[in-house]
Amino acid sequence: MDIFQFTREFIGVDSTTWSEGAGCRWLRDYLTHEGFAVETQTVRDDCFNIVAKVGEPRVTFSSHIDTVPPYIAPSEDENNIYGRGACDAKGVIAAQVFAAKKLRAEGLNNFGMLYVVGEEDGSDGALKANELPNQNKFLINGEPTESRQAIATKGALRVVIETKGRTAHAAYPEFGESAIEKLIDLLNEIRSAEWPTDPVLGATTYNIGTISGGHKANVVPDFATSELMFRTVTQPDELYQLICERIGNRAQVKRGFSIVPVQCHTLGEEIPKGVMRFGTDIPCLTNWGTPLLFGPGSIHDAHTPHEFIRKEDLKSAVETYAAIAKTLLATD
Question: Parallel, antiparallel, or unpaired for β 37-44 and 197-198?
Fold first, then answer.
């Protein structure tokens, strides 16, 4: 099985978040068949993290098995492999696995692989993996960074805003209070607000991901809710406090999952560098050593119907991952 077949077959196993079991089993069986020392850690139901080792790892490749829905079956042409997870992050895992095989073939040891579940919705796999005892010094996390080393990544904060109103017949809206109109006003304030900026990470950004509320078009709505995701450049606690201060007692603000911004370790000038505006599992893997972040593919293609990864980028990433690991092993 070459790296292209590995990527196609792995994509062909549906492992959307909360239903990763089949993907976990496929990857576990492959790594076991290839002769790595494989351990698993149950996270929930039949979904589990995978730890594969050569010796006692000081350097570990890591990424996530789960993908966002919906499942998209693999396909390919002369230049690209398509499908859900092609770049986020099954193609990344493919490059890491083949880099590990290359390192082992060259006689290196004391490195490993850590593949977790749940990254796309709360990082429960990474949080569980952080409980595992290890002697790791460097964590090479994999996400689609356009084959650049990450200097830093933004954090993230999810919040839910809930407004209340009073029902009335829609022909007489003055006798009710529209929770939806209240919510719209608050969301417009969030859109026009000035949020924190950072000289390296840039501006805080947000996405209004969901809106729901009301009963029928002929009933003044008595409830409304919206879930937002902020990409943070400061500590999530600070941003959450700013959001609460702006909204005051006009709505209930519920805090969800959050991760902090991260400064990443980088190596030399041979590999281009850049700032990544997305979050990763790195903040939840603090016990796995100094973090680096690198991967083939573009985040702009992740989570889209046309998700793909270039075959040349896959092959190049194998060499880059192996070179990074060799450098880190030599400095340990």
Answer: unpaired
CA separation for the pair 22, 85 (Å, rounded): 14
**Percentage of the chain lying above the pLDDT 70 cut:** 100
Range 155-259 classified under CATH 3.30.1440.10 = no
Residue 332 above 80 pLDDT? no
To the nearest 10 degrees (0 to 180), the angle between helices 3-11 and 90-105 is 140
Is residue 269 over pLDDT 90?
A: no
CA 90 to chain centre: 12
CATH code, residues 3-153+262-331: 3.40.630.10
Nearest to 244 by CA among 178, 160, 188, 182: 160
By DSSP bridging, strand 252-259 and strand 155-164 are: antiparallel
- Residue 226: per-residue pLDDT: 98
**Token reading at 292:** 């680096």
Cβ atoms of 113 and 50 closer than 8 Å: yes
Minimal CA–CA distance to 232: which of 154, 288, 284?
154
Query: Is the per-residue pLDDT at 195 higher than 90?
Result: yes
| Amino acid at the residue 143 | E
